[in-house]
UniProtKB/TrEMBL annotation:
NCBIfam families listed in its UniProt record: ilvD, PRK00911.1
Pfam families in the record: ILV_EDD_C, ILVD_EDD_N
Modification N6-carboxylysine, positions: 131
Domain Dihydroxy-acid/6-phosphogluconate dehydratase C-terminal residues, every copy: 369-558
Protein name: Dihydroxy-acid dehydratase
Gene responsible for this protein: ilvD
Amino acid sequence: MDLPSFDKSRLPSRHVTEGPSRAPHRSYLYAMGLSAKEIHQPLVGVATCWNEAAPCNISLMRQAQVVKKGVAAADGTPREFCTITVTDGIAMGHQGMKASLVSRDVIADSVELTMRGHCYDALVGMAGCDKSLPGMMMAMCRLNVPSIFIYGGSILPGKFKGREVTVQDLFEAVGQHSVGRMSDEDLDELEQVACPSAGACGAQFTANTMAMVSEAIGLALPYSAGAPAPYEIRDRFGFAAGEKVMELIARNIRPRDIVTLQALENAATVVAATGGSTNAALHLPAIAHECGIAFDLFDVAQIFNRTPYIGDLKPGGRYVAKDLFEAGGIPLLMKTLHEHGYLHGDCLTVTGRTIAENLEKVRWNPDQDVIRPANDPITPTGGVVGLKGSLAPDGAIVKVAGLKNQKFTGPARCFDSEEECFAAVRDRKYQEGDVLVIRYEGPIGGPGMREMLSTTAALYGQGMGDKVALITDGRFSGATRGFCIGHVGPEAAVGGPIGLLRDGDVIDIDATTGRIDVRLSEEDLAERRASWQPRETDYRSSAIWKYAQTVGQARQGAVTHPGGAAETTTYADI
Ligand SMILES: CC(C)(O)[C@@H](O)C(=O)O
Ligand SMILES: [Mg+2]
C-alpha cells in the first residue's frame, strides 16, 4: 500500500520509542519479539473485546489477527489488547444487569488508559456486543487518534419447527411457558437451536443497531458491519481496516473530523429507518459528548420523527441481520435514504471519502424486500419515537415499529424494582389496561439503568404485549416489543415525577403526538414532591457505587464524566 509521506516526528509513539532515554521502554518491546524496524514504525492499538462470556465476543481474537496483518502490510506495528464486556443476554433479568451499562464506560475508560499509557498512534477497535460497540466508539472520539471501528458480526438465525428464530424467541418463550402455552420439551429444544453460531444477537437489536451506526457515522468501512460473524468475508474487512488506519495516520484524519453533528444525525436516521434499538437514544448522546457536541435525547427524537421507517427487520418486522447483508448490506439502506434526502452526503468517513462518494457505486437491489425505498416506506415516520410530558419532562423513548396501537391510557401499577414487576407478571397479577411502572431503575437509582427484556418479553409471551403498557426510568433491550416506554427522565432516584406516581394514577401515552402525561395537577405533584424521600440503594461500595456517584441522566446519554472534547486532552497532540 502506497501511503502519502508524513512527518513521523509528530506521532505520539515517539514518547515511547525514540531517543536514548527510551532505551528501557524499547527493551520491553524487544522482549516481545519486535524488531528495531517495527519499534520505530507507527504503533497501532488493536483493541478487541474478546472473551468467553458470550458468542458475540468469541471470534474477535481470531478476527483481530487479520486486522494485525493489514496493519503490518502497511508498515505499522499492531499491538493487540483486550478489554472487558458484560453480555446482556446472560446478565438479563437479575442483578447482573446492573453491570451492563456501567461496562460501556469501563470499556471506553480501559481502552483510553491502554492507549494513553503506551502512546499508541492509532486504534482499530473491534467489538461485538451491545455495550462494547458504543464504548469503543466513545474511546475513539475521546482519544481522537486516527481510528477505525470494526464489528465482530452478527450471529446466524436458528431454525425451530421450520421457522427462523433468534434469542428474542427464547425470551418470549419464557412468557409462553409460564402460562402453559409452550411445553417443557419445546422450550428445551428451542434453547438448543436458537443461537447456532458465533456473533451478536441476530436481529435489529442493540448490537446490530450500533453496528449500523458505526457505518452511518463514518467510523467503520462500508459493508463491514453487516457481514455475519461466521462469514469468511469478514477477514477482508479486517485486513482492509488494518491497512486503512495507516492511511488515516498519514493523512491525519481523526474521529472528531468524522463524528460531526451531521454524522450523528445520519446515525440517528439509520436507527429510526430500521426500527432499531431504543438504546441508540442513549449511546448517540454519549458518543456526541465525547466529541463535545450537544446532541441529547430530544435531538435524536427530532431525527426519529422525520425519518421514514423502511427496514423490515425483527423485532418489529420479518428479517434478521444476515438477510440485510445478503440483500445489499447497510450501504443499500443508506443509498435509498441518501437518494431521498435523509442523509448528509458530505460527511467524511474512514475511507477518506464522503458518504456520498462511498455510495456512488452502490446500486439499488429491486429483488429484495428487507429494505423498502425511502419514498415508499412502511410508515412515514421512524420506528422509534421520543416522548415528553408531565411524566417525563426530560423525555422518554418508545419503539413503535410493529405496534398496532400507538396510544394508551390506563391506571398506574407501581413497582420499585424490576424483580417486583417480573414476579407480578409471572404470576399474572396484573390487569389488562394497566400501565406497569418500574422505577428506581435509572442510571443512579438502579444503579446502572437495567435493560428489562425478561419482563417485557414475558408479557409479550403471555399475549399481553398490546394490552398493557410499561414505563420505566430504566431501559429496554433491542428485542423488546410491546408498548414499552423507557429512559423516563428525570429518573425516580433524583425526584423525577415517575417516582411520585401512586397506584391508580391515570397515565396518558400518545406516540403519535409524542406525549406522556399523568392526570395530576402541578399542585398535586408539588405536594407529593414535598414529602418524597430519596431511597438508599444496596450498593454502597464497588464499581457500581462508583458509577452512581458520577453518572448523569439518560437524556444526555448517562455519561460518567462531565467534560466533552474541549476539556479532554488528546495525548495525540502533546
Ligand atoms: C440480549 C439482547 C437482545 O442483545 C439485548 O441485550 C439487546 O439490547 O438487544
Ligand atoms: Mg442490550
